[in-house]
């Protein structure tokens, strides 16, 4: 299963995986875009808007009913957004779309993921190290909001979620890893007005970036690899190696546990 597969890294990764002979399920926010990718790949497709947690709950139920087993769940959906807004669920949009929604989806699918001895792959970002500094008492950044901090915090949350997922369920056969796709010329930040928009989403600087296809290489490597042999569970990867530079907070076990507990409460799982 690849979320955020309407375009960019998700679509590129889904194409590579399908070309390698895998059955791929694609998930996206735009019905037209995800349908087009699915038709190209002859794959099942599903639609969900991560800014609405009810969409995520519906998606989880549909995926559970449609898929007898899940070998790999790629939590790729997300992005950078514009001015600070709250979702209909009451959460800051960037944190919900990038972290709370995939956290909820993964947890709702946990019985099937564990039974399948699946791998959960998270698309992270160097933004976690550059801009992220989580405060469990201010996950919505009510006190210190900037667009870059909101994005960095959400990507740091992805890394801490990966670590805690391994800590809680690695002993039951579930594997988890995160990767930094590095910069790529995709639709990232296309609806943002911050300084990252001209770099990630518009000319003339797009030619400086790698392609979505190249960025998807690590996604495919993790999805096709064997945990414990090709890569280690609970680890954050960059260029197919454990990331050399990681956010200091990623080493905080108590923070990882606390984020899990706060996230579960926020999405109604506690």
From TrEMBL:
- Sections of the chain in a coiled coil: none
Instruction: Give the stretches traversing the membrane.
Output: none
Single annotated GO MF = oxidoreductase activity
What keywords sit in the KW lines?
Oxidoreductase
Mind telling me which Pfam families this protein's record contains?
adh_short
Q: SUPFAM superfamilies recorded for this chain?
A: NAD(P)-binding Rossmann-fold domains
Check the record and name the Gene3D superfamilies matching this protein: NAD(P)-binding Rossmann-like Domain
Q: Which InterPro entries match?
A: NAD(P)-bd_dom_sf, SDR_fam
Look up the domain of life of the source. Answer: Bacteria
Name the UniProt record assigns to this protein: Short-chain dehydrogenase
């Amino acid at each position: 299963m690849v979320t955020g597969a309407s375009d960019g890294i998700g679509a590129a990764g889904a194409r590579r995986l399908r070309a390698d002979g895998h059955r791929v399920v694609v998930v996206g926010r735009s019905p037209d875009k995800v349908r087009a990718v699915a038709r190209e790949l002859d794959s099942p497709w599903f639609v969900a808007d991560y800014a609405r947690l009810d969409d995520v709950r519906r998606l989880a139920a549909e995926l559970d009913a449609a898929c007898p087993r899940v070998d790999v769940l790629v939590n790729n959906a997300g992005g950078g957004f514009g001015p600070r807004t709250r979702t209909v669920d009451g959460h800051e949009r960037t944190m919900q779309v990038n972290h709370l929604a995939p956290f909820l989806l993964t947890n709702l699918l946990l019985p099937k993921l564990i039974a399948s001895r699946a791998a959960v792959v998270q698309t992270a970002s160097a933004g976690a190290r550059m801009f992220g500094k989580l405060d469990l008492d201010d996950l919505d950044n009510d006190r210190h909001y900037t667009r870059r901090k909101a994005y960095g915090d959400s990507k740091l949350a992805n890394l801490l979620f990966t670590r805690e997922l391994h800590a809680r369920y690695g002993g039951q056969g579930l594997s988890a890893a995160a990767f930094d796709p590095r910069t790529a010329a995709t639709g990232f930040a296309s609806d943002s007005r911050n300084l990252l928009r001209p770099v990630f989403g518009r000319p003339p600087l797009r030619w400086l970036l790698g392609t979505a296809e190249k960025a998807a290489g690590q996604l495919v490597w993790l999805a096709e690899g064997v945990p414990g042999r090709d890569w280690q569970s609970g680890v954050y990867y960059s260029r197919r190696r454990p990331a050399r530079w990681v956010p200091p907070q990623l080493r905080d076990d108590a923070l990882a546990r606390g984020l899990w507990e706060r996230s579960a409460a926020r999405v109604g799982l506690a």
